[in-house]
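#random but structural
TW: two for the price of one
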Amino acid sequence: MVRLQYSPTSEQRGALVMRLKYIGTSGDIDVDALGYAPEQVADLRNMRLKTNGMYIFAGKVSSGKTTTLQRCLNAMYAEKRGEITIYAAEDPKELELDGAIQAQISAGLDAVEAFRTAMKAALRSDPNVIVLGEIRAPELAEMALEAAKTGHALWSTVHAGSALGILNRLINLGVDREDLKDPRTVGGLIYQRLVGVICPDCRVDFPRAVADGLLEGDLAVRFARLSGQRLTDLHVRGPGCARCQSGLVGRTVVAETIRPDAALLEIYMDRSRLEAEKYWLLPREKGGLGGVPVLHHALAKVGAAIADINETQEEVDLLETYEREFAHLTDRLRHDISALRQGAPTRGIGRG
């Protein structure tokens, strides 16, 4: 599938962007291979167990949300031995779902009215799981909430900058804060990005990268200190070789997942997002949820020579953000780097 975006320019010319959408198959159920961390895989597996509540993916355009959503739903269908009904409404249809009733929303109709009609049809079909391709209007947010409150599992995507940011996005779309305090309604929040997997054959170690002007010396030293790795064991993307495409052999997910409890939702809705984030990040042994931010996941892959520190700074966040806000996770970061270096697979999505 090719999706086109045309924009006129001030020079009386046009800019055309072509997005290639690789069509998977209904047999794609391997969520674990996308690059999620073990605890995130466990979160997604737990979310798939339930047939009630909202489960929302967030990320920017081309961050792999649709691929992960498709595999999660197909895995759910397989794990439940096909004994559930899935009803999906999309504009355009992108998901390949095993055993699902799929409604293609016509581009010729008013989108909101078309989705409203599809949702009414979905509820009459008595599904266990309802899928909305994307929640992008207040009316769609209201429909999604209504589906979750009436005992269905609702899976969808939104554009938000973090997992907790999904809550803010729903509020901005008009969802009442009181409705978002119930963990039986808000079942799961997932945020993901994609970063390149550096080629092991032409990658460049930190000392050489600094000497060649590919990496700032201060950044190299700071990350080596933070990660507990030797400079020579850390690498950046290389120039390209016969095995790869411009130094990359694929892309991998970096993510954060949240299974909210009542305390997190109440803190977020009644106090502040900052306090809610602190509670989410607080280790379980100290009374929190033991969450880790997407930046932690990305830096673990940098430390394991899977991802590039330069791309991580550009696409995820700056190293100084981790040093300032997440320093308490340093020991865990070093543990996660060690685990990845010992052979955790990172196949990811597609080729670079």
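TW: number two ↓
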Amino acid sequence: MPTATSTLPPSPTPNLYIIQPGDTLYAIAIEYEIPVDALMAANGLSNPDELDIDQALIIPSEEWVAAYREKRVGAQSSMTATPTIVIEPPEVTITGVVGVGDLDEEAIRFVNSGGVANMAGWRLDDGEGHIYIFPVFTLHSGAFNLNIRAGKNSPIDLYWGLEEDILSPGKTLKLLNAAGEIQSTFDIPEI
């Protein structure tokens, strides 16, 4: 039986759909009565045929779809032949740590305040030989925790799978994107 652990409160959880074998974006759009282009826009997808099993899709609200449709109608009525879609870059930062020195509680908190971040291949480096490589993971605006211990990944909690605590006061954590560019650093404060 799992034991309760204290974690930082998650950001509001959107309606999510987890991709299952055989799913198509078109079938999901029909099931939820959402236009395929709106479902793609809500998830930052450019190709409706590129879905991964266990990938989490945001199912946008009726209000979001209505606003999206209104924006598209406005864009189509302008003089341009094709609408211009501005894709905001992600802004993923390390915002804190919890449970320093206690493997069952240790976690690193991240927030994305920018556009959709496809984090597959991103890395977290603790500067002491521990490097976490992110799996296929799409981060929309919001927060998630990277727990140091083992566990089952979810849309708001990832698990490193280590068997010993690694967070300590004075350590600097670095978040690098898939190209190896530093996106954020965080100095664990002294107690």
